[in-house]
Amino acid sequence: MCGIVALYGKQSEKNLWEMAEKVHHRGPDEDDLCKFDNLYLGHKRLSIIGPDLGHQPIPNETGDINVIVNGEIYNYRLLKERLDGHTFSTKSDSEVVVHLYEEMGTQCVKELDGMFAFVLSDHGKPFAARDTLGIKPLYYAEDDNGIYFASELKCLVGITDKIFEFPPGHFYTPESGIKPYRELKAPYMGIKDWNDNKMEEAMANIRSKLEQAVVKRLMADVPLGVLLSGGLDSSLVSAISRRHTKDEQLNSFCVGMEGGSDLPAARIVADYLGTIHHEYVYTKQEVLEILPKVIYYLESFDPSLIRSAVPTYFVSRLAAQHVKVILSGEGADELFSGYSYLKEIKSEEELHEELLRSIKALHNINLQRLDRMSMAHSIEGRVPFLDLDLVTYATALPPEIKLYGDGQVEKWILRKAFEGYLPDEILWRDKEQFAKGCGSDCIIQEMVAEQISDREFNRDRNLISPPIRSKEELYYYRIFREFFDSDSAVSSVGRWATA
Length: 499
Fold this sequence. Notes:
A hairpin with a 2-residue loop joins strand 2 (about 30-35) and strand 3 (about 40-45). The chain has helices at about 15-20, 75-80, 95-105, 195-215, 230-245, 260-275, 285-300, 305-320, 330-335, 350-360, 365-375, 390-395, 410-415, 425, 435-440, 440-450, 455-460, 470-485, 485-490, and strands at about 1-10, 30-35, 40-45, 60, 65-75, 115-120, 125-130, 140-145, 145-150, 165, 170-175, 175-180, 225, 250-255, 275-280, 325, 380. Helix content is about 40%, strand content about 20%. It folds into 2 domains: about 1-180, Glutamine Phosphoribosylpyrophosphate, subunit 1, domain 1, CATH 3.60.20.10; about 195-490, HUPs (Rossmann fold). The mean pLDDT is about 95. Strands 2-3-1-9-8-10 form a 6-stranded antiparallel sheet. By secondary structure, the chain is an alpha+beta fold. The longest helix is centred in the middle third of the chain and has 21 residues, at about 195-215.
């Protein structure tokens, strides 16, 4: 896990180092900036795999191909076996990108199973790519000097106002421009001859695929833990992680305000699983003080995202005192229909399309929250539910078995599949938004709304399009513009359907 910056063009090394320093939090362990003809590659490393031998940029055997990578390649051991004719100079999972590119060119990106954004130099020409779902961030910008790439928006603000999010599932070369290599597709099939046997088969497959996804993400050469809110998703990830770390200690982390429902629920799960559990109770005053930092690192002014980012910031800060990698439950709600608004959709086909849309939107909403809040504290967040094999399978399941029964129980098939893994009071616990479960949701809304008058809101709500939707959003927008004084930075912000 790292922060990366690159420029294909002409610029001073001083400016590139300044860009790299803005993502020092993503990789405080070591850094480097190298020039390959007209291509600069800059890297800030957070060492996870092969911590003592994984310096980047990583060269091939002859030094004419080099790469900087942000992320983890989970199938790197299998790929190394395929690449046994190559000499590996590091123990890093990232090195497979270089040698796979030597064998396959730009098509190598289709073979990578993981979360990643990288820029590769091929004799001084760039090849950049981002993972299918956009779990890892990447931005690009253009000006008269050339094309820039960076892990975070803040690196590019002030260089040019032509800043864009690099789209997930795409790659770039100077010849092709930005081009798709994979798109998540799942045409609606509906229920066809669905019976008890098919239901049992589906539950067995969900169990198997989620377990495999978690096991993949236990790969680390540094201490690892789990975020444990006490909700279904994080509790399942924790339960499976514990089953595969029986002889090792597993740290779990939860935060909240006094009176929130997450803290007591997480204690139940931690006691049941036998994790080493850590808690932090934060106050209303701490929330107010931390908001500018959250917005700076999050790079967003969306109210729903910021409310959930506040507890993620605190829990990441807590986890960073003990581990360097955390597993989280992001993605389950989108795969298995976990949001209450989905109950209002009466057409099964429309529900299927909405779930697919929400998965594709994760890259600049929930995934952005986890990435930025964890990396703000120099730890890596991993998301087992968004393993491509599980995503492909789950999106093809009939939506009727996700919202199921007279009460339309959210994520019914997921809960049913894992009966026995958790106490029933947790397995069948009602879905709550993260910030609400932490007890901070309404408090944050009330605090910031008090800072904006009706007159101010009506005057300023049309500063951007679509318009600012609430006093809360206007409050966050003002802080955002203090850090990111760029119209294109504003346009890069993903916004939830509801504020």
